[in-house]
Amino acid sequence: MTRVLSFKFRTVARVLLFLALPLLFLVGCEKENKSDLKELEFMLSGKPSELKVLRKQIDRFEAENPGIKVHLLHVPGSGKEYEQKFLTMAAAGTPADLAMVFTMIYYTYIQRGTLLDLTSMIEEDPDFRKEDYFETNWEGLEYHGAYYGVPLMWITYVLYYNKQIFDKEGVKYPYDGMRWDEFVDVAKRLVHRDSDGRILQYAFVWPDFYMKESLWYLLLHQNGGRALLRDGDEYVLGKEPYVRANTEALRYFIDLSEKHHISPASYELEQFQGMDLFLEGKAAMKLSGSWEPFVFRERKFFEWGVTSLPFSTNPYTFHSSTMLVVPKGAKHPKEAFKLAKYLSCGEHQNILAETGRAIPSLISATQTDFYKKSFEVDRDIMIQVAKSGGRSGYKGKSAMYRSEIYDIEKRNLELVFLHQISLEEAIQRIQQRVENVLSKER
Amino acid sequence: MVETSWIRRFLCWFLQVGHTTSRQELLRKGFKTMLLYLVLVVTAFSMLLPFLWTLSTSLKIPEAVFIYPPQWIPDPVVWENYPAAWNAVPFGRFFLNSFIVAISTTLGNVFTSSLAAYAFARLTFPGRDKIFLVYLATLMVPGQVTMIPVFVLLKNLGWIDTYQALILPGMFTAYGTFLLRQFFLTIPRELEEAARIDGCGVFQIYWRIVLPLSGPALATLATFVFLGSWNEFLWPLLVVNSMNMKTLPLGLAGFQNLYGTDWSLLMAASNMVIMPVLLLYIVNQRFFVKGIIMGALKG
Amino acid sequence: MKEASQKSSRWWVPWFFLLPSFAGFCTFMLLPIGASLCMAFCNWDILSPPRFIGFQNFVTLLHDRDFWSYLGNTLYFMLGIPIQMAVSLFLAILVDRKIRGIVFFRTIFFLPVVSSLIAVAMVWRWIYHPEFGVLNELLRWVGVSHPPRWLGSLDWGKPSIIIMEVWRVAGYDMLLYLAALQAIPQELYEAAEIDGANAWEKFWHVTWPMLSFVNFFVLVTRMIGGFQIFGQIFVMTQGGPAGSTTSLVYYIYRNAFEWFRMGYASAIAWVLFLLMLGVTLLQWKLGQKRQKETYG
User: Do A353 and A313 share a structural domain?
Assistant: First the structure.
């Protein structure tokens, strides 16, 4: 009897001790901060090298503003993780104080009610002068008369080309104002195959997200068609009077890989993800955004040039901004706004210009030597090109269902690439299903 | 007395047989063993191929990663990728965090699961099988839908960005209980009966008989739980905000971003991250020797 | 048996064993699962308060063509399970011996399990590359002129993932089988040998029955895992091409985190759950019968 009791005692003691273990962590990890220090959480994504540069800037900000401390909340990964984390934090009521978002998700978040209206803060601040910034940026930030973000930087889509490949083939470089037909002819001369007919060098590649984010809308506009009307309130891919122009543009798009074999098919491009064909010298041209110089710089033996995109009837490109927003429920919105202002007005804009990560929003930053001299290539074309372009995000209803619409478009177009259905049928299917999504009462 | 040339002595050592085995016997065993090794090597090679690729990629310069035809032996060999990867992000801190989380989760899970598994396997109480089915059922609910409720729960407890948030959810999954219950069921009841006759209390039977005999099962579970915790990405992503609480998978993901992937650094980092789990696995192999079980049964 | 005399004099003993696990289990498992059940009857976009809509999500589900198509994909993926189990068992038997250097081989077989899914998926994506990948290189070398496009093909997308999975998890179950093989008492083999059994008969009459518990565990966990396949698709194909490799859980993920339809996602998860429950109960009943046969 006594033996059993002592065992019981011992085991009870052991179990209690074990259960106490997690409590030790609790005690160990409590870092109660009861000072007057205002701690900001700044959520962003980007390369580690970018972060280091940003951190230095933020340290300067902290030095100029004692009483504010900034924690960088870096979200790794390629984009999906960022949105997921943002969502989860917003759902739990603990969003970051400041976050970096770009045009396409900006409107979605506004419509879902997650961003703070910053209009009064911007208008009351004498340092914020609209003329100092590119018009496209402000227009993009505005939503139904209010501003929910502060401009930081922006990009346009341009055509990059590998000078070495062009020189080797003896082909003239692509130029501003080139038309689709000529583009295809030029491209055909740049494709290399091996003895089995396998393609070793492509002429033209897209970024790996172009199907996921309907970058091919570009082509629709360039041919005089469009997919969205009234700034995204209505979907007209398969509707008159646009359907003819749209079908032509999509036919061109599909022929690039299926008929002319100058670029890999869309779904295969996803497989290449991580392997940038252009960077590896396996593609002569690439349609991409103005962040590429940042990446190109890391490759030493690479000579590249940049020009505007070829078009058929209408020179058109997209531009997209990255802005700083303050989520609703942020603990220190005023301080967050201060930080946002610091990054968008000051020295940081020059640093952005120098790294080539994007085009700074502050006009003056693009007129300095930092911008003009930091790359061997003239980057002004990126700014000019944007003047003939449109916003890559839409403020209407479609912003709310952006991701679903992309998915429908992507899946049905892939079926066309895979020869399962015809292009016309795909367009009609897409039209139907997107209308369905837009009309649902959510 | 048998003549022992050095070949013979080597073969006897290698094949683990006594010195007195006949020549015939030795040749036969040798042949069988050679065949076995052949099969092992071929299978191992097919498993190893992708790793040889990651190893080779981790030592390349970025330009050489995708050249065609594929280059198996890097030229030049960039050993600096490893320290470069280590320094690109605070790997030391990430390793520490991952260790703390993984070890705590493993100890907690193995301990609580083994207790519960014993209850389900050998003790009777009302509703035993029904409760066990509930345990099983929870394995069937996809994590994606429970993530947000757990997150909200942790937020209400104020445990976001703490070790508790990383450790506790992983500690109570039903996998361990299920696994150990199955193993406990295979332990012969006679042993437990004998112990009971000797006057052992229930806990003593558990502690002195069942647990030691489950060496391989416990080691297996420990390896699995450690592994799961070590490689967990989605949950830490949601729950960790600050840099100094990140775990290794989050650190690895840092090499992959909107502009493409730093392949050689990513591979170098991945190889470093694999090491501790591999070591744990090798150490646990000690439990996978037949002799231990036999000894317990006979004794 | 003697258990009957173990009466309820110490009724709290089992609970003493069960409590630590059960307490955490209720907090971190049952509670969130209950919450997700409530979510299934609501319309919730995560950012605004949920709205109760009754069974509407389930009705939508039944008419959702995508749901049925993705269910089909998921079941297809599960065809790889018997292959996985066979390969793992084969490996376990292979390494269940005391020859020199066996630990080295056991480690190599476990290597795929240990690596992070991201690194493994990237490497396999490279292997499966239609133009530059190692696999097609090999196939072209042996004379196949137009090897499949693997992850970019409607027909070969799912098999590609199955093959990668078999490779990746073989070592995992191998460990379980190994532990089970180690627990089989040597006397049973010796007795069989005395009776004149050969290698195959020894396997079939001694090894296989003694593995029944582990087999049950592996089968059930693999099926449950198979129904929930997600990570591989997330990293390797993002559900493409044309949705041919989208699994149900991937669909759930997209609904919850990309399309702001958490309520619908929960509903799908619960239907999936009921499906898995049904299948597992079936296996359980069959397992109980087997258990009674072997152990009495």
Answer: no
